[in-house]
Q: What sequence folds into this?
């Protein structure tokens, strides 16, 4: 009788009404599932902000399309890499200049290359520059408002220069410059850019624009990558920035 009364008293004091599991005083319940929020990702703040910068440009003239960029990758006051390729060939008649986060730009360039190649295999023809820009814009638009930082300028053989950024916006023009050094590059381009430029004059103008921007913008510098896109081939010409104003012949030439 005494044991039965003790049992009822114990259950009344320490047991929950809707469960058979008793919780002892000062004990930890190990059978509870951890509460999970709807968003499982945890955003970790950087200990200090990292400023990024670059100088890229593309313009149209009577002999084709010119695309150029510097080669410095910066992270705040640190020159992370002095030889980054910010102008990348997507296929034989399309190059892309990139600015923004280096990792994001590399990822989306590879995704764009894959999608264009798949389109070419399915339809047996290359996707147009406008179609490529529209495709990239649709793929980037869902990431609007996130930390994705991508700004790509598409320079293609059908004499079009189109800018696409990570919020899905598309801008088309005869001359486009992107990056922290773009105001200085625009100053040179606005003075010397004409439709009737020869190939050598267009190459010299693009080289001079990036070169002058590297002298005023702390986040741009090192070398200049320069592409000339025509209907027959795409060529890249590289000039060291410290020799840009003194060199008349470019020291390296590659044909893609």
A:
């Amino acid at each position: 009788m005494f044991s039965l009364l003790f049992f009822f008293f114990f259950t009344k004091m320490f047991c929950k009404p809707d469960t058979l599991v008793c919780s002892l005083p000062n004990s930890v319940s190990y059978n509870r599932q951890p509460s999970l929020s709807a968003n499982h990702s945890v955003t970790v703040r950087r200990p200090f902000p990292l400023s990024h910068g670059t100088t890229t440009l593309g313009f149209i003239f009577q002999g084709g399309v010119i695309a150029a960029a510097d080669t410095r990758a910066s992270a705040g006051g640190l020159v992370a890499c002095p030889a980054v390729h910010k102008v990348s060939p997507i296929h034989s008649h399309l190059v892309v200049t990139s600015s923004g986060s280096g990792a994001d730009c590399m990822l989306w360039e590879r995704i764009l290359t894959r999608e264009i190649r798949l389109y070419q295999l399915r339809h047996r023809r290359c996707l147009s520059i406008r179609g490529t820009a529209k495709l990239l814009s649709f793929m980037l638009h869902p990431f609007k408002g996130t930390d994705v930082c991508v700004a790509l300028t598409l320079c293609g053989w059908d004499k079009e220069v189109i800018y696409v950024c990570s919020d899905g916006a598309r801008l088309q023009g005869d001359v486009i410059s992107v990056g922290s050094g773009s105001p200085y590059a625009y100053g040179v381009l606005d003075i010397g850019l004409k439709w009737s430029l020869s190939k050598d004059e267009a190459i010299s103008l693009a080289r001079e624009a990036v070169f002058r921007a590297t002298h005023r913008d702390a986040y741009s510098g090192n070398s200049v990558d320069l592409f000339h896109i025509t209907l027959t081939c795409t060529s890249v010409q590289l000039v060291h920035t410290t020799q840009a104003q003194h060199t008349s012949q470019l020291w390296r030439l590659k044909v893609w």
Remarks:
- Helices lie at 2-14, 102-123, 129-140, 182-192, 199-216.
- The chain has one domain: 56-255.
